[in-house]
User: Fold Protein NrdI from Paenibacillus chitinolyticus.
Amino acid sequence: MLVVYDSRTGNVQRFINKLNLKAVRIEEDLTIQEPFVLVTYTTGFGQIPGKVLDFLKHHSSLLRGVAASGNQNWGQSFALSADRISSAYGVPVLAKFELSGTSSDVERFHKGVRHLEAY
Assistant:
């Protein structure tokens, strides 16, 4: 399954590099025509990045799952963008990971993607 992502500080990019999956970064003119999972970062106090929101306005019908990076120092706001996207679009949270994620985070994400692909 296609992975669509955005990265501000490089943490999400490093996570994506560990996945060995087909991935494309959100750019202003990006058009997707196949189901995808989204990997994003969390900004502010748990907000979804604006570029991600704009992308989802046009492509949410193809969204199948979401994952987000964050920093556990933010407590309840840790990777909250994943929860907000999950709630708004009715898709599962595949993973929440700190910074660029661990091998366990990568495996959890892969497991979630495999589950989605089975249905």
About this structure: Residues 103-117 form the longest helix (15 residues). The radius of gyration is 13 Å. The longest strand covers residues 63-70.
